[in-house]
Amino acid sequence: MFIDSHCHINFPDFAERMPELLNHMAENRVTHALCVSVDLPEFPQVLELAERHAHIYASVGVHPDYPDTPEPSVDDLARLSNHPKIIAIGETGLDYYRLEGDLEWQRERFRTHIRASRATSKPLIIHTRAAAEDTLRIMREEGAGTDKGGVAGVMHCFTESLEVAEAAIAMGFYISFSGIVTFKSARELQAVARAVPLDRMLIETDAPYLAPVPFRGKTNEPAFVRHVAEFIATLRGEPLERIAHHTTDNFFKLFSSAQVHA
Questions:
Q1: How confident is the model at residue 13 (pLDDT cuts 50, 70, 90)?
Q2: Distances from the Cα of 236 to the Cα of 97, 215, 231, angstroms
Q3: Phi/psi class of residue 210: alpha, beta or left (left: φ > 0; alpha: ψ in -120 to 50)?
Q4: Would you put residue 128 in left (φ > 0), alpha (ψ -120 to 50) or beta?
Q5: Taking 80 as the threshold, does the pLDDT of residue 260 lie above it?
Q6: In this structure, are residues 146 and 169 in contact, taking their beta carbons and an 8 Å threshold?
């Protein structure tokens, strides 16, 4: 079986086709999905999906690409995460690619999420783009990761170097690959996917974005995570069932509270 460890199926793209989406998941042996929060105003929709479907989980957090949205406090995140279907804090992190100027507010928001993760003992979902150095620095400063007595987490939709992956793994983090790894242009990322230990790997769609080959350019959905797994299996020369087993096992190890609803 396969698990989509990161998607946004609360987005409008899926409003009218949720039964179809869930059927596609079942047809492709995608047994669970984690619907990830990007801001607080839309969080109730994320939670409602998780409450309605036993095999859908949720997170709470505010994405770094959202400058004009209510800023969460540690207490806000801790309070909202106090629900059995909320299994993670995030997504959070740094993104210097889309936004310019003084981005100290991003760094402070990231610190808030790390502190909430430590306070709640719930894993972090980290987004980093064009900001790897600062991301790792703040993770270390705030005690993110099991090496500092904090909580593990995942570097989602990973596109950084093997050195960055190894630094995150050393902190107790997992590395999650999206449909990007299937793109012909993603040679460096494919080398990372070959090298990351299977016991530290997750797979995801980031739906509705980044559909893998052969669906590139179309609306992504959790069922397509199977194609990410198939590509990685071929890339590594390993049986598909081995990739499925490890990434599923890793999901439930990291998001341990999800086991209650498996």
A1: confident
A2: 30, 21, 9
A3: left
A4: beta
A5: no
A6: no
The pLDDT of residue 261: 60
Residue 247 is encoded by which pair of tokens?
């990434």
* CA–CA gap between residue 242 and residue 93 (Å, rounded): 30
Extract the tokens encoding 19: 């039964």
Classify residue 122 by burial, with Cβ atoms within 10 Å: 0-12, 13-18, 19+: buried
Interior angle at CA 193, CA 31 and CA 220, nearest 5: 45
CA distance 96 to 9: 25
Q: Which fold has domain 2-261?
A: TIM Barrel (3.20.20)
What pairs with residue 89 in β-bridges? Answer: 60, 124
The arithmetic mean of pLDDT across residues 222-247, rounded, is: 98
* All structural domains of the chain with their residue ranges: 2-261
Kindly tell me the number of DSSP H helices and DSSP E strands found in the chain.
9, 8
| Residue 215 identity (one-letter amino acid) | F
- List, in sequence order, every beta strand (DSSP E) within 98-146: 124-129
How far apart (Å, rounded) are the C-alpha atoms in residues 186 and 208?
20
What token pair was written down for 229?
A: 């797994």
Write out pLDDT tens, residues 43-85. Answer: 999 999 999 999 999 999 999 999 999 999 999 999 999 999 9
Residue 195's pLDDT is: 98
